[in-house]
Predict the structure.
Amino acid sequence: MQGTFWSLVPAVVAIVLALLTKEAYSSLFIGIIIGGLFYSGFSFTGTLEHIFKDGLVAQLSDSYNVGILVFLIFLGIIVCLMNKAGGSAAFGKWASSHVKGRVGAQLATVLLGILIFIDDYFNCLTVGSVMRPVTDCQKVSRAKLAYLIDSTAAPICIIAPISSWAAAVSGFAPEGTNGLLLFIRAIPYNYYAILTIVMMVFISVCKLDWGPMAVHEKNAMEGDVFTVQSAQNDADGSSAASGRGKVVDLVLPIVVLIASCVVGMIYTGGFFSGASFIEAFANSDASVGLVLGSFGGLVVTFVFYIVRRVLPFKDCMACITEGFKAMVPAITILALAWTLKGTTDSLGAASYVAGLVEKTAGSLLNFLPAVVFVIACLLAFASGTSWGTFGILIPITLSVFPLESGNPLSIICVAACMAGAVCGDHCSPISDTTIMSSAGAKCDHLSHVSTQLPYALSVAVVSFATYLLAAFIQNAVVSLLVGIVLMIVFLFAMRRQVKRGDSRIKA
């Protein structure tokens, strides 16, 4: 089963079960068990050892993963502090008088998500913390908030030259290649990310929703922003808020947190040892940088609240355990998703996918960008990781179309790989970014997945058609404009279809 289609089966089973049963924990664990059975040749002891020693324990002892978990905990504590101090409630009241209507709340969420382009994890949890009071006040569903967060996390980071994602892609470039320049040249061809932004703005302004999202939005307008209750809903660890909180008690910690995380990331990249700002970002360790930044933000928040006497010291300390508890659902799903990814890797999924791309490359050169996009989508969907998909596919595509050859298809294929990875990551219930978006919005995780899927697949279809065109005309501006026109035409057609359906219901 090594390096064959069977290597993808554990992840596929977990995803299908999650979508059918609406229960993530058991679905992920069943996928892990299947992977363990495949790896050990159906040996009982071998399966147990692979699941726990090679899987769960190995993933939770990985330094990068531990850093992300610590960052989650620190952020959970900060959110708990802001809520208990009354900063979130005060910001919600202020925003209700300045952000007008559901359209304004959604556009404000999109704008904030675009501004926080440093890292997708940081984006998800920060935007969620800030915008939840606003969207709740304007009766926007938590599922819609989770979609907007998810769509301004990875899609923004993958077209931002200064981000942890740019650093990751640069690291996968062949030796001797300017990875950052490769990333920048690929931006105009990153159709999925750009068209996702177009869709978000359109559906927010035109009040367009379809599929499961329409149900959630209808319920939200009637006063139920959750539709599906779960452990994630409002698990912020602070039901009793202080009445002394002001808007500054939310804004200042968030601003300090952003600044601290930027400093933390460039510090790990050697900025204070002589590296330039761009070089420091390209060489940064996002996991360590986010831990350092979030710890700095946490210390400042503690001191700020105690000095202002917004929260007594005892209540600040109580937020440590409460903030940790609030992040337990997200941490549990992340740990299981990482273990499932490790199982898939051990079965040789990477070599299987690499073989598929190499077989395709010989006979379908002009169709290769579209093919790479689809394969990247499927691989990221099954594995739940964009960065792992980059690491597998970017070197393969550049071996088919070396940059030195000057063939424009090399850049288009790299962009298709990045776009497909983000698309698959966006759709996958076991993706860490999808999990973080649910945590940031305090939304039931599988509700987020089921409501987002029709939107993400719509953009994926338009992106696929645009890559087919781009491979033949090889003009970034023209193909992008055609893609945007196709996206808008689709949305207008969908809007007309939704209105026709509404009129039939009324009749």
Observations:
- The mean pLDDT is 84.
- The radius of gyration is 22 Å.
- Residues 476-506 form the longest helix (31 residues).
